[in-house]
Amino acid sequence: MKAFSVLGTLIHAPVLGELEILPAALVEVDGSGDISAVHRSNSESHANLTAQARQEDALIELSDSQYLLPGMIDLHIHAPQWPQMGGALHLPLYDWLQQCTFPLEAKYADLEFADKVYSSLVETLIANGTTTALYFATIHLEPSKRLAEICVAKGQRGLVGKVAMDNPAECPDFYRDASTEQGLDDTRALINYIREMPGNESARVLPVVTPRFIPSCTDEMLKGLGEIAKETNCHVQTHCSESDWEHNYVIERHGTEDTNSLNNFGLLGNKTVLAHSNFISEADMQLIKQQGSGIAHCPLSNYYFSNAVFPARKALDQGLDVGLGTDISGGPNPSLLHNCNVAVTSSRALEEGVNPELPAEERGVPGSRINFKEAFWMATSGGGRALDLKIGQISEGYAMDAMVVDTAVSDSNLITWDESDDLENVLQKILYNADRNNITKVWVQGEQIK
Q1: pLDDT value for 93
Q2: Separation CA 130–CA 125 (nearest Å)
Q3: Which of 232, 277, 342, 370 could bridge 347 with an S-S bond, Cβ 3.0-4.6 Å?
Q4: Which residue ranges form the domains of the chain, and what is each CATH number?
């Protein structure tokens, strides 16, 4: 890949709660797709390096209406659920899984069907600025391989896991691993395949150990997956204390909460991402922090299926690595920018309460709100920290995973005013109003994929 530079206004959030805004910054990208330097407009070398890059035809110049932002990092996506996004949301979680979701996921035994759906999903996410996606696939090995291949072909940074679910008490006959041993063998096979996959020499696509959640897995499966995670040093993803039903099920079965149970099976570590985590306790938070695990906060889907709002403010104040997830299709919107908006909204709902029959002072949980800066951090830097990857910032030593947002495209709800909008306010408007048509360029590891 040829080295290049980008000249324009850079906005990112390397530090929680703070924005770094650099007008007319020069971002240098090396031949491996990493950011080699970021030069402020007033630096001594800025003018000479800009002129040199322009002379070498290696300069991308942004207009005054365009902004360079880190790519979005989506920490929780059920790839096979893409065809039902926006449907069946009237059902409670257990019924939604048994009546709609498991029958849909069973269809992915058909590789042609999987290819069509997964291609559509990856293309849509890229169009929405999602440069990194953490994917649950299905129980099927070959279609899970195909999802990884599509990520490579389309240039997205993907982390792909074959779902493990072998518990006959909670999984339907038509959709579960043929046996515990088969589920474990297929997990190992996918790990080996992705690591040796043609075109993936740079490891842009990574394998993930993926117990669906504790109810779907026998203890034998959970133990085996923990051993695989340790042996292979793979990422791990699963659901944790998502809803009343799931949270209470684990307590009844194991005599402890999800976090302790997962840790006992060797499934908590610095490459683990726990989806939802709405009902985690103070002790759970400390264990998650101690193990270096991350949380995928899925604010939109929590409204539909979790019976609670995740205490994002509390988790961030405890120093946990919290990112955002769309939770397609439990979350009926593929845009992580939209989920930034909902993350702020849900924190305000938690703080202020929602029951008008209660007095204002009894209605909510004081001190629960987050703001747009913190939501943006979660969607970028926080997601990178949760995955233990050098992504989510436009800083020296990080991968050039980035996007250009243009506030001047036609047919857009994103309107800014030179007379009154400073650059912080422009970002806030981007988070609340930008759509896929405002995202005009997307890079992953320095390769432009939109």
Answers
A1: 83
A2: 5
A3: 370
A4: 4-70+393-448 (2.30.40.10), 72-387 (3.20.20.140)
